[in-house]
Amino acid sequence: MPHCQNTEFRRSDSFVCDSCDKSIHYVCCFVIDSTVDTVSRCLDCRFSLQTFDDRFQVLTEIRDRIYEQLESDEDVLKDVSIDRENLQSLFSDTKETRKRLESALESIGCGHRTWYQQITGNQARKLLRPSNIQLVLSIFLADCSPKLPLIEKIMHDLSWIMSFCNNSEKSDAEIDELQDILWNLESNMKKAFPSATVSPKLHLLFVHLVPYVRIHRSLGHLTEQGMEHLHAIVNVLNVRFSAVTNPESKAILIVKHLANLNFLFDTHQSWFQSE
After folding, report:
1. Chain centroid to CA 63
2. Residue-range definition of the domain harbouring residue 4
3. Which end of the chain has fewer beta carbons closer than 10 Å to its terminal beta carbon, N or C?
4. Is residue 76 part of a domain?
5. Which residue ranges of the chain lie beneath pLDDT 50?
6. Taking Cα atoms as reference points, which of 30, 38, 22, 23 lies closest to residue 57?
7. Are residues 111 and 136 in contact, defined by beta-carbon separation less than 8 angstroms?
């Protein structure tokens, strides 16, 4: 390396050629980044260079490859920068979207302070009203997710099923419509949530609901509403018999009162259409 002693390359990193045992600067072998490229032989040993034109030709080829690599790296850097900006925007938009969503849920009586990540039956009824469905979904951008139209259809189908579940006697046409709604709901849920687990309630809804309604002609006999109303009656009776200190005697009085109510209001109507 005597010819490099008076140049700016004299302190550059160097290596020893495996073939000729000469100490060679990396830069003299046209190695730009010595930490990446591993060079064990000098240019003369690698390419058998005879003239300066040969060296210039090799240098030109190496330079072109480096320029191509730099352009490729620049494109990758641009893509990464765009992805980074999109992620930052997503996090910012998500924060604002969540605030708007919480505000909308609060306005319809389904605020997170009330339901703590779970909603009650009354809150589900409020959420599944058509006007409230539109209010909640309008918070999200139309192109934010391809699943958004499916979720809208799912919510409207659940809203229809919720309204269907009352004490009225169902006709064959209404039951057929229920079957169509359930088929659409099942199809949309498979598309929107392909990896979701089928819960027992979903299984009952899709598989057993229609046969049950065709037999009993109604969903009002075994819903939870009757039991919830019965709890209110029991609470009233518990207050009425508060003077009875013996818990067994109080329980007997409550059961007798409920039996009397059943005797007074039982219509002897069969649940089965055949009877």
Report:
1. 48
2. 1-48
3. C
4. no
5. 2, 114-115, 271, 273-275
6. 30
7. no
